[in-house]
Amino acid sequence: MLKVFKYTLIDLARNRFVLGYALLMLLVAQGLFALEGDPTKALLSLVQVVMALVPLIALVFTVVYMYDTIEFTQLLAVQPMTRSAILGGQLLALATALLLAQAVGLGLPLLVHSPTMAALVLSLSGSVLVLVFAALGALIALKQREKARGVGVALAIWFLFVLVYDALLMWAMFTLSDYPIEPFVVPLAGINPIDLARIMVMLQVDLAAMMGYSGAIYKNFFGSVGGTVVAALILLLWIAIPVLLAFRVFKRKDL
Amino acid sequence: MAEARIILQGVGKRYGALWALRHVDCAFHAGEVVMLIGPNASGKTTLIKSLLGLVRPTEGLIKVNDEVIGSDPAYRRAIGYMPQISQFPATLTIGQLLEMMADIRELGKSELEDSLVEELGLAAQLDKRLSTLSGGTKQKVSAVLALRTRPSILVMDEPTAGLDPVSSKRVLQRAAAVRDTGGTVLITSHLMEEVESLADRVAYLEDGTLKFLLPVQEVLERTGAKRVSEALPRMLESNAMSNIL
User: Which of B170, B164, B163 is nearest to B117 (CA)?
Assistant: First the structure.
């Protein structure tokens, strides 16, 4: 596995898309901190960008890379090594390359302009989202034979998590506003990894107060040690389940 | 008859409702070159992929060197494979790719046969990125990867496609050398004229069924043709092989 990891990482280190991702994040982060005098406000703007852009890039890049390297994956699969070693090496390299690009593009500006706990949580949340959506991307690429279809499914999933899910949640909250539904909001928000990551950052900048009763519930739950552990476990499951499914699919897949 | 190195017993592969291979029974021996031929979608590639472990047969079993192939990938140590389409990680260099593949097989320099790198004119291009190579050069790299590990089983899918005549000849000479040292070589090619001089037996597949697997000489004698490329249409038209099946 480490051999596949090493050479895949060498390949990815020179990949224009990965370098472009690092540069884009760097420009956005630097730009926001330069335009906004208050680092906290810049951080809040950056949260919105990270929560939308990071999942999209991790998802689409993983799907496209997996399709583009299918012939080489076949060549690896006829070597005396297990399929788990091949996929493990490839996924580890993809995750490492994207995380390194993000560390440069997002981590560095945060460290320079806003070395706070909120920035650290944003950086960690962004990293977790990279892993979640790279795992989902790998699963999509392995399940769908055609590249165009795979990219389409990836975009649909991103759209669902970033826009549709929140819209449905808000619609439900608005429609059922006469009922005490807030206790249900926490588990519902927790299902969506992007919402969960966003809540964790918001709690650090103490914006929960501006979110009304729901914010108070979030703060009560996710602000506690137990809540943080639950959030971490949910995010871990969002990584582990797609990865395990991807291994299962790849082991049986006809290449 | 030399020892059977690859044995297929009742091998079938179904994709959805379509059977790409149907109950294939045959053996490929040490010290022979077998030319796999057949029209498009006849099951040649599926047969090769089943043998390589890329495709899991729906039924039957495959033995390589007396071992039933399954989840243990160790049997592939004996195999060199040259695929029809050569795509490699774009930003790696030829040298890095060769190093990677040797690394994966845990082979040292002394265990590798690298003279083909020089012969195919790749020695001066080892620092070139794979994304910058022409299709023909990628095929050469692919040939080197298949042959440099000194395989006892060599599987080549359209090996001469995209290669210049000189390189084609050299690659086929190397395939012949594998046979001459006791190896088993399976080649699929649409350019029968190029490969038939090398082949000892011909396997003809159609609709996923192995129609016949005969020595080249026998195919020629039965039809009175001088070349396999001429013999094949005659055999199929006259159904001359019906008594063999």
Answer: B170
